[in-house]
Design a protein that fits this description.
heterotrimer; A alpha+beta (367); B alpha/beta (290); C alpha/beta (192); B: 290 residues; alpha/beta; Rossmann fold; Ribosomal Protein L24e, Chain: T; 2 domains; 7-stranded mixed beta sheet; 27% helix; C: 192 residues; 6-stranded mixed beta sheet; 3-stranded antiparallel beta sheet; metal-binding (chain B); Alpha-D-ribose 1-methylphosphonate 5-phosphate C-P lyase (chain B); iron (chain B)
Chain lengths: 367, 290, 192
C-alpha cells in the first residue's frame, strides 16, 4: 500500500534547527561576535554592503554571521531587509574630490598633488601564509604620521585642464533607481553604474577581465584609485540648508582609456568609473572597465559583439541574488513538468520506432 | 513578524503592484513591467506570485498554496506559512474553500468559480525568450504582433519529431492579441485557462505581471493538421481511480514498478473521501490505522 | 455626509486592510466589465464621491500623476489629495489618473494611451458622479461570459477608445459608494 509523503512543515522546521546548529559549529569554540566580524572581516563586510546596496557595517556583519560566511546569502539578507525600509529622502551627491583618502594611487602619473598614498593594501605583500596569525593576531602598534591637510584633486581634472580627456555631461537630473523602477533597455549610464555597483564581484571581474584579454579590448590605465571617507549631507526642508548626517567609506576608481577617436569623437582619453562602499578595490576597478566597455555607443565605437559591450547581457546577468535564486530554484520539485516531458519523449520514441519499423518492412517488401 | 506591514509589503509597493495588476487585466496577456521588490525568499521560488498575492489578499481571504498540484510540497508549505504569519489569513488545502490560490506548475482539477483568484508563479514570463533572448527584440515582436518565429519553432518540431515537442509552458494566444506563457503548467492544463476565476501571473525576477480575466479566450497555439492535444499519462489514478486528472508517476521499487497518482492532492483526497478507490488505494481513513 | 471633510480627514481608518478591500473591489470590476461593487472607506471634499475618494487613496501616491478635471479641481480637493497621497498634480496629457465628471474629463484625445511596446503607459480615468445622461450599452470581451450591460456616458467615444486596442484608456465609473469599470479590451454596442 502506498502512503504519500507528508509533513513538509515539520521537515522544514527540523532543517532550520539543524542549520542553526551547524552555523554555530563546535560549541567548545568561542562564538563569533558581530563586532569581531565587522572589525576583522571588514572586506567581507564591505562586499556585502556594496552588493546589498546598504551602508551599515553592523547589519552586514550580522548577515555574514547568520549566513555562515556565505556572502551571497548575506547580500540577500541585507537586500531583503533594505526593501522594507521607509525612505526619508535623498542625500546630496557625495563629493569624492573632498575625500579624506586613506589610500590614493595613480598609475598614469609618477606623482601628483595629493601624492601617491599606498594605504592599507595587500599589494606587495608576499602571499605567504602567516602561521603566526594562527596562534595570535595581535599587531604591533604602527607609527602614525600627521594627517595631510591639503586637497587631493582628482587626477582626471589635470587631463581635463588640458582638454585631452572626454568631458562628462553635467546634469542635475535625479538619476533613476533600479530598485524602484523596472529595468528597461536601452538603459542609461546612471542605471548601468548602479547595476554594476550592486552586481556580483565575480561576474563583474570576469567581464572586466574579458575586455583586457581582447573581447572589446580598450586598454585601461588606472587614472586613479582612492579609498577614504566622505561626509554625507542632506537638505533639511525645515532648516533650508544641508547638514552633515554621517560619513561613508568609499572606493572610487577612474580609468583613463586610450581612444583613437571615432566618426563622432576626436582622439582623446576616455573614462570608466567605479564606485563602491568600503574598501573594495578589485570591484571598483572591474566596474570601471565594464563601464567603459558599455560606453561604446555614446563614443561612436564599433560594436564588436563582445559580451562586455552588451548592456542587456551584462545588466541582466550581473545580479547574484537574481542569478542564485533562479539557478537554485531548479532543485525545487519539477516532477509535474518532468512527467509531461517523460510522456512526450516516450511518445516520440514510440513513433520513431514505428516509423523505423515501417521503413524496414517497406524495404523488405521491395527486396 | 508583527514588525512588518499587513502582507509584508509596504503600502507604496502594494499600490505599485496593484496598478500593474489593473493594467494587466485591461490588456490580457500583455506583460506589464513592475518594480519587483526583493522578497525574503529567493528569486525563482515564487517571489512574483508572492508579491501578487500580497497585493491581492485581504484579511477575509482563505488562502491555498500548491506546488506541483500538492499542498504539502516544501515550497508550498513555506509560502503558505509566510502569509499566515504576515497577513493573518485563514489557510486551507481544499480548493473550493479557497478564495485566493497561489500555484506553481498546476491548475487545480476542480473547476474554479467566479469568486476565486488563481495566482501563478512564473519563472520566465516571455514566451518568445527561448527563441530570442533579447528583451528589446521580443518587446518589438509583441508590439508588432509578429509571432511567426513561434510558429516556425512549433512547425520545425513537427517536421523533426512528428509532434510539437513542448510538453509544458505551452504557449497560448490570449484574446486574439498576445502570445502568452501560461507558466510551466503541463499542457494538459491549458484548456482550463479559460475559466470563471481571475488569473494573475507574477514573475518577480523578470519583473513582469500579467493577467487573464474570467472567460477570456485563450487558445493553445497549433496547426490545422496538428491540433493541440492536452495529454496526460494514459492511466487512472491508482489511489482514487480518477480518469480525468493529471498524474504523477511514482517509482515504487528498484524493479521498476510504478504507480500513477493524482498530482492535485486535494482532488485525490476529496475523491477518496467520496468513496472512490483506485488499484492500489484503500478507503480513506484506513491507512492511518494500518 | 454630515461631517465636514477637511484636508486632514477622510483618510483610511486602517490603511493596509482598507486599501486591500478597496483594491479587491477595483480589481473585480476591472476584471469583470459591467459588474458593480461597493467601494468605501475614504471621504474627500466635495464634489468627489466616496468611491472615487477610496479609489484615489488605493491607487495614487507620489509615483502617479493625477489630473483633477473641471469641478474636481478645487483647493480643498487638491489639499486633500496632496495630504493623503502625495501624488503630484499634473495636466491631462501627463496624467496616470484623471478624475472628474465625464464632461470635465473630455476630450479623451488629451490622455496618454500607451505605446505599441508599452501599452500600459496609459491613463486611467475615474469618471465620477452624474450618470443621468448615460445610455445603456452591451459589453462583450475579456472578463465577460456572454454579454454584460453598463450604462455609459458616450458610447461612440468609448467604441473609438476600444478601437485603439491594445492601446487606449481604461475607465472606472464611480457614483456614491459604487464602482464599475471599462477596460480598453471591452467591445461595446449600443443598447441593453
Amino acid at each position: 500500500m502506498y502512503v504519500a509523503v507528508k509533513g513538509g512543515e515539520k521537515a522544514i522546521d527540523n532543517a532550520h534547527a539543524w542549520l542553526a546548529e551547524e552555523r554555530r559549529g563546535d560549541t567548545s569554540v568561542a562564538e563569533l561576535s558581530v563586532a569581531q566580524i565587522r572589525e576583522q572581516l571588514s572586506l567581507a563586510v564591505n562586499r556585502v554592503m556594496t552588493e546589498g546596496s546598504l551602508f551599515d557595517p553592523d547589519l552586514a556583519a550580522l548577515a555574514i554571521k547568520q549566513s555562515r560566511g556565505d556572502l551571497i546569502e548575506a547580500v540577500f539578507l541585507i537586500r531583503a531587509y533594505r526593501t522594507t525600509l521607509p525612505r526619508f529622502g535623498a542625500t546630496l551627491p557625495v563629493d569624492t574630490g573632498g575625500m579624506a583618502c586613506d589610500r590614493r594611487i595613480s598609475a598614469t602619473f609618477k606623482d601628483a598633488p595629493g601624492g601617491q598614498v599606498l594605504g592599507p593594501t595587500f599589494d606587495y605583500t608576499h602571499r605567504l601564509l602567516d602561521f603566526k596569525l594562527a596562534a595570535e593576531g595581535e599587531v604591533v602598534p604602527v607609527e602614525t604620521g600627521a594627517p595631510r591637510c591639503g586637497p587631493t584633486p582628482h587626477i582626471t581634472e589635470f587631463l581635463q585642464g588640458e582638454d585631452i580627456i572626454q568631458r562628462e555631461p553635467e546634469s542635475d537630473a535625479v538619476p533613476g533607481d533600479l530598485t524602484r523602477e523596472p529595468m528597461e533597455f536601452p538603459s542609461n549610464r546612471a542605471l548601468r553604474l548602479q547595476s554594476l555597483t550592486r552586481g556580483d564581484e565575480g561576474f563583474i571581474l570576469g567581464m572586466a577581465y574579458s575586455t583586457q584579454r581582447g573581447y572589446a579590448r580598450n586598454h585601461a590605465f588606472v587614472g586613479e584609485l582612492r579609498i577614504g571617507k566622505v561626509p554625507v549631507e542632506m537638505e533639511i526642508p525645515e532648516l533650508g540648508f544641508a547638514i552633515e548626517i554621517g560619513e561613508l567609506e568609499l572606493t572610487e576608481c577612474e580609468t583613463v582609456n586610450q581612444f583613437q577617436g571615432s566618426k563622432t569623437e576626436p582622439p582623446q582619453f576616455t573614462r570608466g568609473y567605479g564606485l563602491v562602499f568600503g574598501q573594495s578595490e578589485r570591484k571598483s576597478i572591474a566596474m570601471a572597465l565594464v563601464d567603459r566597455a558599455l560606453r561604446w555607443k555614446e563614443l561612436g565605437e564599433d560594436n564588436l559583439g563582445a559580451a562586455a559591450q552588451d548592456e542587456e547581457f551584462v545588466l541582466s546577468h550581473s545580479d547574484n541574488i537574481q542569478a542564485t535564486g533562479f539557478l537554485e530554484h531548479i532543485k525545487l520539485p519539477h516532477y509535474v513538468d518532468f512527467q509531461s516531458e517523460l510522456e512526450l519523449v516516450r511518445k516520440l520514441r514510440r513513433e520513431a520506432e514505428e516509423r523505423l519499423k515501417g521503413e524496414f518492412t517497406a524495404q523488405e517488401a521491395a527486396e | 513578524m508583527s514588525d512588518y506591514n499587513f502582507a509584508y509589503l509596504d503600502e507604496q509597493t502594494k499600490r505599485m503592484i496593484r496598478r500593474a495588476i489593473l493594467k494587466g487585466l485591461a490588456v490580457p496577456g500583455y506583460q506589464v513591467p513592475f518594480a519587483s521588490r526583493e522578497m525574503p525568499m529567493p528569486y525563482g521560488w515564487g517571489t512574483g506570485g508572492v508579491q501578487v498575492s500580497a497585493a491581492t489578499l485581504t484579511p477575509d481571504d482563505t488562502f491555498k498554496v500548491i506546488d506541483q498540484g500538492a499542498d504539502d510540497t516544501t515550497n508550498a508549505v513555506s509560502i503558505r506559512k509566510f502569509f499566515e504569519n504576515t497577513a493573518g489569513v485563514a489557510v486551507t488545502e481544499e480548493t473550493e474553500k479557497a478564495t485566493v490560490i497561489q500555484t506553481r506548475h498546476r491548475i487545480p482539477e476542480a473547476e474554479l468559480n467566479e469568486d476565486q483568484i488563481l495566482v501563478y508563479q512564473v519563472p520566465i514570463p516571455e514566451p518568445l525568450r527561448f527563441l530570442e533572448p533579447r528583451e528589446t527584440e521580443t518587446r518589438k515582436m509583441h508590439s508588432l504582433e509578429e509571432y511567426g518565429l513561434m510558429h516556425v519553432k512549433l512547425y520545425e518540431d513537427i517536421s523533426q519529431h512528428g509532434d510539437i515537442a513542448t510538453a509544458y509552458a505551452y504557449p497560448v494566444m490570449v484574446s486574439d492579441r498576445y502570445v502568452m506563457d501560461p507558466s510551466p503548467i503541463p499542457k494538459f492544463d491549458n484548456p482550463k485557462l479559460e475559466m470563471s476565476a481571475i488569473q494573475l501571473f507574477g514573475a518577480g525576477r523578470e519583473q513582469r505581471i500579467y493577467a487573464v480575466p474570467p472567460h477570456t479566450k485563450v487558445v493553445s497555439l497549433d496547426f490545422e493538421d496538428y491540433p493541440f492535444e492536452a495529454s496526460k499519462a494514459d492511466h487512472p489514478c491508482d489511489l482514487c481511480a480518477a480518469e480525468d486528472s493529471y498524474l504523477d508517476e511514482v517509482i515504487l521499487d528498484d524493479a521498476g514498478n510504478r504507480m500513477f497518482v493524482c498530482s492535485d492532492t486535494d482532488y485525490c483526497r476529496s475523491r477518496r473521501a467520496a468513496g472512490h478507490v483506485g488499484r492500489l488505494g484503500t478507503e480513506l481513513g484506513t491507512e492511518d490505522a494500518a | 455626509m454630515s461631517v465636514q471633510t477637511t484636508q486632514f480627514s477622510g483618510g483610511f481608518q486602517n490603511a493596509p486592510t482598507d486599501a486591500a478591500h478597496a483594491f479587491r473591489a477595483a480589481m473585480t470590476v476591472m476584471a469583470r466589465p459591467g459588474e458593480t461593487r461597493e467601494l468605501t472607506g475614504a471621504q474627500a471634499p466635495a464634489p468627489l464621491s466616496e468611491a472615487a475618494a477610496t479609489l484615489l487613496l488605493t491607487l495614487c501616491d507620489p509615483e502617479t500623476g493625477v489630473h483633477l478635471a473641471g469641478g474636481a479641481n478645487t483647493a480643498d480637493v487638491r489639499q486633500w489629495l496632496t495630504f493623503h497621497t502625495g501624488a503630484p498634480l499634473v495636466s491631462a496629457s501627463k496624467a496616470d489618473f484623471a478624475i472628474g465628471t465625464w464632461a470635465a474629463l473630455c476630450p479623451l484625445s488629451t490622455y496618454r494611451i500607451g505605446t505599441a511596446e508599452y501599452p500600459d503607459r496609459s491613463a486611467t480615468l475615474i469618471v465620477d458622479g452624474d450618470t443621468e445622461a448615460n445610455s445603456e450599452a452591451t459589453l462583450t470581451g475579456p472578463g465577460i461570459k456572454d454579454a454584460a450591460h453598463l450604462s455609459l456616458p458616450d458610447i461612440q467615444t468609448m467604441q473609438a477608445n476600444a478601437q485603439l486596442y491594445p492601446l487606449g484608456i481604461d475607465f472606472f465609473f464611480t457614483n456614491g459608494t459604487q464602482v464599475a469599470a471599462l477596460p480598453r479590451s471591452t467591445q461595446i454596442s449600443v443598447g441593453g
